[in-house]
TrEMBL record:
Keywords: Hydrolase. It holds the Pfam family HAD_2. GO terms for molecular function: hydrolase activity. It comes from the Bacteria. InterPro entries: HAD-like_sf, HAD-SF_hydro_IA, HAD_2, HAD_sf. This is HAD-superfamily hydrolase, subfamily IA, variant 1.
């Protein structure tokens, strides 16, 4: 296992990493006619008609807000965040969510972090710009920051930024797991590993 003693901060994805999400991306793709292999946010950004782009954006936000109202802590997330607070590690979240939905999820679950970055702030993952910005803000080298997520984009973003990529699989055999530096089934396993480092 990678040496975790050099870790000075953690950044998390939000949906299906810290909190639950029931967003139906297949349905959203069908409604806006986004092909299956195309990133949904990239697809919306490429819509030529301003009014159609706004309609697509509003639809996504509407679904995100509905999802935000039912989001709840995933196993291990509350304990891990409490451990990070005790250790005084800086903690951030970088999500592809809109800010309104992300803030709702944080408020409803009483999650407090040092920084929240959404798709309105920087280009969406896997672009690493948001991660670079946080590292610069904190004054911490990228190689001393871990990015934790459940999606290939999370692993890509972390690797693109030169951070330690940590994949949470939720007991699913993900084909891209070998791209991550660390792989855990659940967050409590990550907490145990950090405590041992």
């Amino acid at each position: 296992m990678k040496d975790l003693s050099t870790i000075q901060a953690l950044i998390f994805d939000l949906d299906n990493t810290l909190v639950s999400s029931q967003l139906d991306f297949k349905l959203l793709r069908e409604i806006i006619s986004c092909p299956g292999k195309v990133d949904i946010l990239d697809f919306i950004n490429e819509i030529k008609s301003a009014s159609l782009m706004k309609q697509a954006e509003d639809l996504i936000v509407s679904h995100e807000m509905s999802d935000a109202l039912t989001a709840s802590f995933l196993p291990g997330s509350k304990s891990l965040l409490a451990f990070m607070a005790i250790q005084k590690y800086p903690v951030g979240i970088v999500t592809r969510n809109c800010r309104q939905a992300a803030n709702t999820k944080l408020k409803n679950n009483a999650i407090s972090v040092d920084i929240l970055i959404t798709r309105e702030d920087y280009p969406a993952k896997p672009n690493p710009e948001a991660l670079f910005a946080i590292a610069q803000l904190w004054g911490i080298e990228c190689q001393n920051i871990m990015y934790v997520g459940d999606h290939f984009y999370d692993v890509q973003a972390a690797n693109n930024a030169g951070m330690i990529s940590c994949l949470i699989t939720h007991n699913i055999d993900l084909s891209f797991k070998y791209s991550a530096h660390l792989v855990f089934n659940e967050l409590h396993e990550l907490e145990d590993a950090l405590k041992k480092s």
